[in-house]
Specification:
By secondary structure, this protein is an alpha/beta fold. About 20% of the residues lie in helices and about 30% in strands. It contains eight helices and 26 strands. The strands form eight sheets. Strands 5-2-1-9-20 form a five-stranded parallel beta sheet, covered by helices on one side. A hairpin with a 4-residue loop joins strand 14 and strand 15. Helix 1 packs parallel to helix 7. The chain starts with 15 loop residues before the first strand and ends with a helix.
Length: about 400
């Protein structure tokens, strides 16, 4: 990849352009303004660009907050405070990395172009949608933005409802727990044998399954949803599962994972795999073009995508320094993730998925106190951990023992 372009070949007459207006985009601007108060910055967003914490989408019911109430700072205030030219409700259509221009449709639908000195892609990720048969398949919803949450809450209505959650990964379990707190009936369907099967050792996953079941979740594991139709007699939705069973529910929420939004970069000839490939300076295969956040595939993380808050904060700080003329390599610290499942608090410091080793459980922990698991590699070093229940308070203790 090219070396970071911050010298005379990066014309300062042209602005820094950022595509996206989520946590990654706004954090880059905030960090850059600490180092450079003068640089011209233009931000293009497909939505309103209001600032909010995306993790709050999956516990809004527990907080008794509407989608609008999750906004912490309106976009106009963010733009004013950080001296950004904001172009909301804008669709970026294409990039020309040789000419350093991008083409976009503005809020009025007019086609325009814009030159850049440096470009940051913070295009996020899109929910994966699984194919499904049935007349009501289009009624399956996903939640990835404020507008999605508002639409889902509107679909639920005020009366008690039963919701089918497709997916027992991190987001699916968080939404399932939030719906329980909101007073809804919850079914969860997943082809895996237990929740968070790709993230947790078996014992921890079984604890979470039992804890959510005790709160009211009906699990349908080892199967998938085959079709969704309107059930004429009841006016509800009928889901038919691959194991032959059927469920009547009032709403269906798909939470089967995210896919990096790399279409814009890929169409411009930028190298993309699971996400937009970036080097240790967060530069893509194109000069003057950088990426971070849910859309990026980080060399600094062994080629992983990291759709979590802490990687974004670390990446934004490093990229801001590079953009300010201080080339800075991104080095990720240990970044444990707290899973928002009040039924069973969980802290995960996941090992690299390609690392060989095994999970071992700490002995002597009473079941009601949760559990502690350590991932030990073939050399006997601790490379990750999982804490559940009351054991989650040991986060700092186990973090100090973990080798990156």
């Amino acid at each position: 990849m090219h070396a970071p372009a911050t010298g005379p070949d990066a014309p300062q007459a042209l602005p820094l352009v950022i595509v996206g207006a989520g946590l990654a985009a706004w954090t880059v601007v905030r960090e850059l303004r600490k180092l450079d108060a003068q640089r011209s910055i233009v931000m293009l967003s497909s939505d309103s660009a209001d600032f909010y914490a995306k993790p709050t989408l999956s516990n809004a019911l527990a907080q008794k907050r509407s989608a609008a109430q999750l906004i912490t700072t309106p976009a106009a205030k963010m733009a004013e405070t950080l001296q950004v030219q904001l172009l909301p409700h804008t669709q970026v259509r294409s990039l020309n990395t040789l000419a350093r221009t991008l083409s976009y449709d503005d809020a009025a639908g007019q086609s325009r172009s814009l030159g850049y000195g440096d470009l940051v892609l913070a295009t996020g990720a899109d929910p994966i949608r699984l194919p499904m048969a049935g007349s009501a398949a289009a009624q399956v919803q996903s939640i990835n933005h404020l507008e999605d949450l508002a639409s889902f809450h509107e679909a639920l209505g005020a009366a008690p409802q039963t919701v089918l959650v497709i997916g027992a990964g991190l987001i699916g379990c968080e939404f399932a727990n939030d719906l329980l707190i909101g007073g809804y009936g919850v079914h969860v369907v997943d082809p895996s044998p237990r929740p968070l099967a790709l993230l947790l050792p078996a014992g921890a996953g079984e604890q979470l399954q039992a804890a959510l079941q005790a709160q009211g979740v009906a699990w349908h594991l080892g199967t998938t949803v085959q079709s969704l139709d309107a059930h004429a007699p009841s006016g509800r939705l009928q889901a038919v599962l691959a194991d032959g069973s059927s469920l009547q529910v009032d709403a269906v929420l798909s939470a089967v994972g995210l896919r990096a939004n790399a279409a814009l970069a890929s169409a411009a000839g930028i190298v993309c795999e699971r996400g937009i490939v970036v080097d240790a300076h967060l530069q893509t295969s194109a000069a003057h073009v950088y990426a971070l956040g849910d859309c990026a595939q980080y060399a600094s993380a062994g080629g992983r995508v990291l759709p979590y808050v802490m990687p974004i904060m670390n990446a934004a700080k490093a990229l801001a320094a590079t953009l300010a003329g201080q080339p800075t390599e991104l080095v990720f610290p240990l970044m444990p993730v707290a899973v928002k499942t009040p039924a069973l608090p969980i802290v995960v410091a996941a090992p690299h998925p390609n690392l060989s080793g095994q999970w071992t459980q700490d002995a002597g922990v009473e079941p009601e106190a949760g559990g502690a698991w350590r991932f030990v590699d073939e050399a006997g070093q601790q490379r990750g951990f999982v804490l559940t229940g009351k054991q989650s308070s040991r986060r700092m203790e186990l973090a100090k023992m973990t080798v990156l």
